[in-house]
Amino acid sequence: MFKNYIKIAWRNLQKRKVFAFINILGLALGFGCSILIFLFINYHLQFDDFHENADRIYRVVTEEHQGSDVGYEAAVPPAFANAFSTEYDYAEKVAKIYYQDALQIDIEDDNGTKKFQNDIVFAEQDIFEIFNFPILEKISEQSLADPKTAYVSESFGKKVFGVQNPLGKSFTLDNNKTIQIIGIFKDIPKNSTVQGDVFVSFLTLKGSGDFVAKDVWSGINSSLRCYTLLHPNQNIANIEESLISLVSKHRPKIKNVHRYKLQSLSSIHFNNDYGGINTSLLWIFGLVGLFLIIIACINFINISTAQAFSRSKEIGIRKVLGGYKQHLFWQFISETFVLSLFAIIIGCAIAFFALPTFNELFGLSLSIQSLISFKTVVFVLSLLVMVSLLAGSYPGILLSRIVPTLALKGKLTQRDTGEKLTRKILVTAQFVISIVLIVSTIVIGKQISFAVNADLGFKKDAIVMVPIPEKIEKIKIDGLKDRFFQISGVEKVTACFASPGAAYSNWGTSVKYNTRPEHEEFFISAKLSDKDYIKTFGLELVAGRNFRESDSITEVVVNEKLGEKLGVASPEELVGKQVELNGGFIKATISGVVANFHDQNFHENINPVFIAPSRNAYNEFAIKINGKNATTSLLEIEKRWKEVFPKYIFDYTFLDQRVAEQYQEEQRFLSLSKLFSGLAIFISCLGLYGLISFFVAQKTKEIGIRKVLGGKISDILLLFTQDFFKLILIAGVIASPVAWYFMTNWLENYQYRISIDWWVFAVAIIGVTVITIATISYQAVRAAIANPVDSLRSE
């Protein structure tokens, strides 16, 4: 029986090649995108699930309570790990790791010295006991408990040493430390929270003067992480409660009250407060994949029901010859299955060829094996069954109910064969989805454009950020600045810790204002730089003057936000007042006030800021250049930089690019919105093209009669389009509040955001209208200009 169903289904599809092609193409695109979205969602859901004791692994994080404000930091003070390990008995293992980006590595071989940059993880030995990072081979008598030792990944070893075994070999780190490789581990999967190719002993930092290497409680470095493997059956709430005593013991006088929390490994990737992804993104991806499948199914249902009249006599004869309703129903399901089978094969091919681009777009590492994994195969088969039933059931039920006597006499009505109202509802649903996706794309694009191109309160164009790779004396910094100024095209130069909008540079510290008896309940962020910082970045001085440089910090410039938080009436009132910073270690006078600037991205509020000199903290030069001679200027900058730092690799970034990179995830989201909006509209257009083709064939004689009676081409075109105009208008009314709701919620992630204007919805509705007219006009105009003699000849 089933074999017979398939055979008849194949013959019917061959008879209607155009409509079969339209349905297969629409479903194939929906299948292909859904498979990729499934791989994306499954990739994120599998984060960190390969560790043996994943249920007992926790990261310690910090809630910073400052008055009524609560800040979230995925790190702890440097002294926490040792205190937690020695003062409590909750954990089997405790380890901290510290990330540093783009440190220089030098390798000596027979061909000389090879220099390159690589991210480094400074780690304590227990990190390899907490996490299951397979060690391929190691020197047994050594570990990361020994300073100046390292474990490297298998791929790193091959990249650096080629076919030679890197075990036991050495490299020079940052031109001042010789590190021995004592172990090689298997490459860490991309869906792991802890990442790295080179793990260097944490003790290597000892004596370096680096804040994280000190046993202190006074601050937090966001690049320092603490992980622990707890004993079985621990009560997390009780542990967190007991950790309050650490705060009262080690930070009794500081108003920024810490609350140390244990974050389970399984929740790290999805906790947005601590830098994880927003789970709503996965829901959105899943819904988009579902919408694409639904649109393709709607196409199939509409075209199938529209063809009901042409198949009514076939159905009538089958019923007269003894065919039952259930037999006819399964016949249509079989046709849908055959068509869906072709579509899903093509969809898998689309996913296969699109996978490299998809990986690049979203920074993933999905392999071809992921396409043939057990989960993916189950998903594809489930999708095939679901779509076959979803798309085939309604046409099957509708057509199996046809009364054979009416079918054979040719007296079937539209209600009997097509359910015109149902078709209109389904087409309207397609329009609703398309309008929502278009509105979403426009709003996301506007917000990203606003964030990247808005006035940030500082200049970012044509400013080159060049690193200062090692601590050097003030005389060398000033000398190098003078050399930069000698370059034609260089306009301004400053040495600083980081640019004004660099979120990673927000060193927050306590502040005590003037004669007030206590420290304020909020933090103030430090922007450490020389005196040329303000003019290089174009900060607006609204009161007072710039600070004077000295060996210690005696004067600071603050922003207007500090005055707002203090409740001071005007910026002028701040000038000349005394402030104590960093727990009283810095006592200085406010010499000037600058206008507010965005010290973080648009997701965050502007913080109170002070700008002060501290040459030991300078990490980079900011060089304002003339854009007309950029290439020549960069070559000269490199030449002079290498005269001072001959052992280091020269590197630079443009500040405007660095600002744009802060919205990389949003840019990817925008690319996704554009792609899926385009696909949704294209699949919808395929369905509309199929429908209008069928309607034109049905109305051929009607069109001929209208033309003979004097009907104009515009009247005939309106005949086919007027119903669609009504459906688009209804869809616009439904889609607009839906899109407004979702986009308003999405914009809540930004402290500084656009408003959603009415014209966004108008553009989406007009756009869908224009695309719809373009889709149906070809067939409609072709029918309208045809010779009526040809269509009426048989009468």
TrEMBL record:
Domain MacB-like periplasmic core: 21-243, 432-622
Transmembrane segments: 20-41, 281-303, 337-358, 378-404, 425-445, 675-697, 724-743, 758-778
Domain ABC3 transporter permease C-terminal: 287-402, 675-788
Residues in the signal sequence: none
Domain of life, per lineage: Bacteria
Membrane topology of the entry: Multi-pass membrane protein
One Pfam family here: FtsX
InterPro entries for the chain: ABC3_permease_C, MacB_PCD, Macrolide_Exporter_MacB
Keyword line: Cell membrane, Membrane, Transmembrane, Transmembrane helix
Compartments, as annotated in UniProt: Cell membrane
Protein name: ABC transporter permease
Organism whose genome encodes this protein: Aquimarina celericrescens
Highest classification ranks of the organism: Bacteria, Pseudomonadati, Bacteroidota, Flavobacteriia, Flavobacteriales
